């Protein structure tokens, strides 16, 4: 069971996973050693599963951020999944969902030509509904 201090630790680490245990302890009113012990326990119990970074995709040249609802044309999804595997550099996240559509895909593209190439290939396997992120 998580107490308020554990929740505050998770909140602080979510904002900055690189802070020192001394800094974390000061923010949650513990010593650095006590904070480190709590973090170790949170990792062991699976509340913290990994540490990561957030990359600025715009600076990397990926100016188009899109979400696609995927509607399969047949009961066999294998050709679609094979297409995804071949084009995984464009796909940020891919989820099998219930509700509107069979899958939800988040993608990044460097420009309209890359987006068009992807959509042309995708349409050979499934139908889709495209939404472009504005801001």
UniProtKB/TrEMBL annotation:
Which GO BP annotation is one of this protein's? response to amino acid
Q: Name one Pfam family in it.
A: HTH_24
Q: Which InterPro entries match?
A: AsnC-type_HTH_dom, Dimeric_a/b-barrel, Tscrpt_reg_AsnC-like, Tscrpt_reg_AsnC/Lrp_C, WH-like_DNA-bd_sf, WH_DNA-bd_sf
Q: Which UniProt keywords apply?
A: DNA-binding, Transcription, Transcription regulation
Which spans are transmembrane here? none
A GO term from the CC aspect: cytosol
Could you tell me one molecular function GO term of this UniProt entry? sequence-specific DNA binding
What is the protein's given name? Winged helix-turn-helix transcriptional regulator
| Organism the protein comes from | Metabacillus mangrovi
